[in-house]
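During the second year of the project, the team shifted from modelling isolated chains to modelling whole assemblies. The rationale, set out in the original proposal, was that interfaces cannot be judged from single-chain predictions alone. As a representative example for this report, we include one of the complexes processed in the last quarter. Its constituent sequences, exactly as entered into the pipeline, are reproduced here:
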Amino acid sequence: MIQFFSRPRSVFSAAAILRAILLIYGSLQDAFSPMKYTDIDYFVFTDAARFISQGQSPYTRDTYRYTPLLAWLIYPTTWQGKWFPFGKILFAIGDIVAGWLILLILRSSGKMPMDRALKFASIWLLNPMVAQISTRGSSEGLLGVVVSALLWAVLSRRIQLAGLLLGFAVHFKIYPFIYATSIIWWLDDEHVHGASSNQSKTLYSRVIGFVNSARITLATYSLLTFMILNALMYYLYGWPFLQHSYFHHLTRIDHRHNFSPYNTLLYLNSSPTGKSTAKLESLAFIPQLFLSAVAIPLAIAKKDLPSTMLAQTFAFVTFNKVCTSQYFLWYIIFLPFYLPSSTLLQKPSIGIAAGILWVSGQVIWLQQGYRLEFLGISSFVPGLWASSILFFVVNIWILGIALKDAASVENPRAKTIMAHKIQ
Amino acid sequence: MKQRITYVVHDPDDFNPSQLHLSPTNDSFTLDSVNAAKEHRLTFGLSELPQELYRVLRQCHELHIRWASEKPYASIPPYVSRISPGLHAFFTPHKGSPAYVDLLCPLLKKVFGDGLKCESPQDTFIGMPILSERFSMSSASQYYQLLPSLKDLVTYIQQKICATSDPSCQTHAASLLSATYVDIDYDTISHALVLNVFWDRAPDAESWTETIALCQKADHIEVGVLTSEKAVDPEDLAFSGFLTVIGKDSKPSPTRFSFPARHHPLPSSAPPTPPLTYTTSFRQPTGLHPTLLLSFPSASLTPPDETCALHAYLTLPAALFIDKYQLSDPLFLSSQHLTSLRSISGATDLEAPVWVVPEWGSAALLELAVPASPSSSNSDSDSASHSRSSSPPNPGPDDWTVRIPLHLRYLSPNANASGLAPVAAPWPAVFWACRGEEGAKMAASPFDRVNLGYEGLFGPKTMFYHVPPAAANVSSEVGARLVEEIRVPVLDLDQAWYVEWGTAVVVGLGTLWVFWKLFEIVRRDLVGGTKVEGEGKKAQ
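Output from the structure prediction step:
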């Protein structure tokens, strides 16, 4: 076991074999069983790619709500036959590249020995949930590469690349815009040049000092990338692109049951029989965005950027108006950076309790969902509502632990500076 | 007004011409205990109609209304075509006057009842799939709603069309209450409104004993009393019997004729094989993804001809829908004993809740799979295992069960119903569609019936062999309906009073908790910064 984690080759081979087995198993199940392994979304992507190959808009396919780039990316699937799993292979390769980037970050910025870094990278690389989601053909994993590459670029001060990746990520899936504030806040002179910011400054020089070249570069590159991609897609596919990729997410009702605490409220208030006293659900974006895009980055981004991004994503998903298990992948990518110094590992009792509560919150909800969806029992209240509230409370508690941990991480550089002073 | 009345005798051995009498003055015709099905066709000139009807019809290019009773019935040639029970409307607007089309829904509500969900043809009606732009015979749009009774139509006719001094008109209108199906047709070319009413048997009695009298001296009424004969050509239907034109003829004249028919009964099956019928049910529990089951005695699933394919035509209310993408995989289709989804139109959005769907619902044509060889199907492990594991109690092991996967939209929350809301779906129309040779001549048949929703989805030469619902054989069974009702879980408003403030309080407290954690961090930073330096000094 120790041997296994000491060599990158063995871990990456295992990750690749795991995905290869799932891909082969999946294509066999697809070929011989009426129950498909392949995710329904993958059929949406491949249908959209086929429309593109016929010179039509990808939005001709109902429920295609992604950037046309995704359909272009899996264009070879339109060559039929053997090419059908091309997209899944691409997503699986994306997983492994993301794992490699995680390892790079742990080794360089985390200053971690190889075997320890490989163990933590395995949370992503050898995670059956991650491997299954990408081999079933869901694109959520693809975002993992982009986000881990973004983090790697920022931590290794490749600011222009980071800007490109941030712009692309927001174009691809919107939610990564929350990382803009934490990265901008983190990019102070101390982090960019290693210069100490402890000298007392006037307010004026602080404001001027905030607008440093790294921040300007990141903002310019990300905005330009985002706008150019949007302009290009709008030029190619017109209004349906904006409607389905962006406005749909603003106007959707999300009345169908999901993990979000707002779910029952949305069902109630979007229906004509629901008599809403105040449209509280229309204010739902305020706590969500204020916490994930403003308060959390400002409070902790400078201490520990990867853990801040985990906390931001965790808060974003927890407070979102819609929440399904695919969204959990968005923060699982950050676990390898956060867990090494977390309370969850330092105090196993808390870690185990958090794990059990997080899983059982979902199990209780799923049991209510099963009663509704398959047995036809009206389990909306109290069943589904109470279990989504319970899951929300569990998530909030874990978020609190993560915030405290991220804040108490001792910045290695700050430590050295301090050590110099002490001497 | 022109009238044509046709009786088709159920049992030819039971019928004798002496049961028919023409009055000495030739102005009335009496039937004495004739056990038969009856069709009454009335043709009105536009000038004979009330102003409000005329105003709406003038804006229609075509309007065809079909209504069928929910009660099971046995069909008899030539009245063998079937539609799902309820009210169907097929409509093509007149070119150039779209504004008046908004009169159609208010009129339908006035005539058939306020309960109809109908806003306007643009919103509520669904487009009909067009097979061929040039040769299409079907209407542009389609409407459907479950409607158990025609009592509103009867009231409308009695109040708006019958003269108050005409008790026979009132009685005739009331007779619609016992009708098996009613067709109303209008198109600009004929400029006439045709009301066609069919009874599968005499209501409240074994047989028809009635007198048909002319209203005015100048009128003519055609009366035919027919029995079904075996046709020489399998594409034909043949009849013999007596035709009488009241007001013209002095005695019933014997007749014998045949014609190519679009709609056929099933060929009679050899004695050990039961006749082909079908049963519709929902797999229990229905959940949010109900599966509609169509069961057939598998030994009887022999096509009338090798060109034939078994089809089901579904009209689904908006609460239920078919996912066309789910029905595109051949493996999945065959596991459900389906061959393909041939056509689907209407409200097919996969995500919308019912309250944002303006259309009445959707219509789908499915081609059904049949056992590879009907005699060997009992040993077919696939069908046996499926019917054992998934069927409700009624289909037996010798049944071939076709499973149609449906999905439910979210319905509005309700109160006083323990969080359940009823959704009803009519039985589909099931038939073999076969290639015929004499398409053009079918339309010339005196009994041709088109604009049923599905026949326009096939080529003009197609013949239909209609499969009767199983319950048709036990039509005397009280309460049997060709409608399946399920209970759908919805949010129970009686228990939901705390959802709004409960969610707000929990999310609010959660937000405050996170703020508190962040506040602690920031405070420790501000205070702690000096503390660390202090500790540093101490260490020094």
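The first helix of chain A runs from residue 2 to 6. Chain A is about 70% helix and 0% strand.
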